[in-house]
Specification:
The chain is α+β, with helices and mostly antiparallel strands. It has one domain. It has 7 helices and 11 strands. A hairpin with a 6-residue loop joins strand 4 and strand 5. The longest helix is centred in the middle third of the chain and has 29 residues. The radius of gyration is 20 Å and the shape is globular.
């Protein structure tokens, strides 16, 4: 990764391609994205390998590089998380940094959209990225507060998912966490009211409701196995 501060003069001719169709099988998401994500794939909490802090993610497949959410004939999922939409762009203090090694960037006039207008002002593509980065910064803060509340109320529990597919392959997904229905039902009225007023109940139900997508993705994987035989 080669991060540099985005500069209108230095990067005047830089252009940005569309987000690559390939989506990692597990992508970090913000709480504001939960309802849209829950409609297409399961949501889990997991721990950052470096810091041990919890974060929320969307599961697009059961193995690395596997995308079970994309529609037939397309590798692009029906929902693209903000973290993928901003691919190649990062927040650095009050500025935007870019990864010049990211294949999204090109100097060819035949590809992508220009980042800057001739006047040096941000072009439509960069303004779109600016909005996405702003949503990520705000969303990160909101999501961390949401997860901290879940942990404080002891609502987070580990979940191991074991799957066996029609070709005989067995997969066990470990290191994932969800929200405990039992612990939620045991909460006092004051805590439940606080969750409701902060908008957290909707996020909780999105997470727990999304678990039904595990069986849907497993069935879709079996169908693809059968089609490949």
């Amino acid at each position: 990764m080669d991060l540099v501060a985005l500069d209108a003069r230095e990067h005047a001719h830089l252009r940005v391609r569309a987000v690559p169709a390939e989506t990692p099988h597990f992508v970090e998401i913000m709480a504001s994205e939960f309802p849209a994500v829950a409609a297409v794939c399961p949501i889990f909490l997991t721990k950052n390998a470096n810091t041990g802090a919890f974060y929320a993610g969307a599961l697009f497949g059961f193995k690395p590089e596997e995308n079970l959410v994309a529609l037939p004939g397309s590798r692009t999922p029906p929902y693209v998380p903000l973290d993928r939409q901003r691919a190649g762009f990062f927040v650095s203090g009050d500025a935007i940094a870019i990864d010049l090694d990211d294949p999204r960037f090109t100097s060819s006039n035949l590809e992508g959209e220009p980042l800057f207008e001739e006047s040096g002002e941000p072009g439509p593509a960069l303004r779109r990225i600016q909005r996405q980065l702003g949503q990520l910064v705000d969303g990160k803060r909101e999501t961390e507060s949401f997860i901290a509340t879940l942990l404080e109320l002891k609502l987070v529990e580990p979940i191991d998912i074991s799957l066996q597919f029609d070709d005989g392959e067995k997969l066990v997904l470990q290191g994932l966490y969800t929200i405990s229905h039992d612990a939620l039902q045991d909460l006092g009225d004051a805590d439940v009211l606080s969750l409701f007023r902060r908008g957290y109940l909707q996020s909780i139900y999105a997470v727990t409701g999304s678990l039904k997508q595990v069986a849907i993705l497993a069935e879709r994987r079996n169908r693809r196995i059968a089609e490949s035989l």
